[in-house]
Amino acid sequence: MLEAKKESDRAAANRYVPPEEPNKAKWPKMLKVEGNHLVDSDGKTVWLQGVNCGNLETLPADKQVIKSTVVAIDEWKSNCIRLPVKEDFWFGQSPYQKDGGKDYRDTIDQIVTLAANRGAYVVLDLHRFRAPKQEHADFWKDAAEHFKDHPAVLFDLFNEPHGISWEVWKKGGFVGEKEGTDESAFLTEEDKKKNQGFQSVGMQALIDAARSTGAKNIVIVGGLFWCNDLSGILKGYALEDKTGNGIMYSWHTYNWHPGWARVIPVLEKYPLFLGEVGADIKKMDFIKSEIQEDPYTFVPDMLGFIQKYKINWTGWCLHPRATPVLISDWNYTPTPYWGEFAKRALAGEQFEMKKMR
User: Fold this and answer.
1) Is the pTM of this model over 0.90?
2) Beta-strand pair 219-222/247-254
3) Domains of the chain by residue range
4) Handedness of CA 17, 340, 303, 347 (dihedral sign)
5) What's the CA gap between 114 and 121, in Å, rounded?
6) What is the pLDDT of residue 338?
7) What's the rounded Cα separation, in Å, for the pair 175 and 162?
8) What is the DSSP code string of 219-253?
9) What is the pLDDT of residue 255?
10) CA pair distance 108, 306, nearest whole angstrom
């Protein structure tokens, strides 16, 4: 019993990070889109590199993510973290929440302050799938008002759209039953059912909702096929941002996705954000085994591709159970097949892309 209590105390100590008061003198400068890259308010080009600090999209009371933010910046040398969140938790709609979401929002505020005080940025990622609904527009109206013009915060409007047309993606429309293979092995049955038979508001409506508050923060917009396909952006489906600091398009790719070259025409015109990338030695059971490349060949080449084209990126994920895992435990031990490579890249090591996929 005593040993169990000691272990519990050690775990708690490993999680705890004291809150900090905002120190605006150390905050990064506000970003805006200029051509196909990001610049700060001094006109200096900024290249975002970091990791995803996950679990607030799953557990509203998680506090380990606070520690993860500090580790990502102080020890892994990230200048950006991507923070997955969920609108239900923001508004306090989980049965586990009794405070209307206040503790959840306070946790996010603490993370933003800890990052900003270290000169780093936070990409607030609404971690939802399929197509945006009205409740997602409502979230962005509230969250954008909350973080309006905070220099450290960028808005990643919708995690992974899929199973819809580019027309519905942009303008909204009816989203029917998903056909074909469903790769959403990480979604609950309830969430899968919610992702069919509804009216989508479209991605442009999410931008409009955020901009209705007067917030100018950069918005990030993911493409189709689970954010892996950006082809429609150059075929008439680019979005509009008339009053803000611009749009950065998001791409997600893993060690079973070919076609890296397909994003080059997009990144030649727009800034690109590789919001999720990685590879795990343990293969995904919902993807054909034979198409999942060995991390030891995929990862160095992908990092070389990122560096060659100066793609903004955040690796997935600084959590030992959110595969592909960057760490093997809560001591933040980097995994040899992904975390070690990513940590070296964030520290400045250069990688060579030997082969395009």
Assistant:
1) yes
2) parallel
3) 2-346
4) positive
5) 10
6) 98
7) 10
8) EEEE-HHHHTB-GGGGTTT----SSSS-EEEEEEE
9) 95
10) 28
List pLDDT tens digits, range 154-175.
999 999 999 999 999 999 999 9
Residue 8: pLDDT above 60?
no
pLDDT in the model for residue 196: 78
CA torsion sign for 281, 284, 285, 289 is negative
pLDDT tier at 2, thresholds 50, 70, 90: very low
- DSSP-assigned letters across all residues of 41-65: TTS-EE--EEEE---TTT-TT--HH
Q: Identity (one letter) of the amino acid at 227? A: C
- Give the pLDDT confidence of 117-149 residue by residue, as tens digits: 999 999 999 999 999 999 999 999 999 999 999
- In this structure, the dihedral spanned by the alpha carbons of residues 113, 153, 334 and 159, taken in order and rounded to 10 degrees, is 140
User: Domain 2-346: which topology?
Assistant: TIM Barrel (3.20.20)
Longest dimension (CA), the chain: 65
Q: Residues 299, 338: contact at Cβ < 8 Å?
A: yes
DSSP 3-state of 302: helix
Q: Is 16 exposed, middle or buried (0-12, 13-18, 19+ CB in 10 A)?
A: exposed
Sorted by sequence, the CB contacts under 8 Å of residue 40 that are 6+ apart come out as 28, 29, 30, 31, 32, 46
Q: Which residue has the tokens 């506090």?
A: 63
Predicted confidence (pLDDT) per residue in 182-197, tens digit: 556 667 777 777 777 8
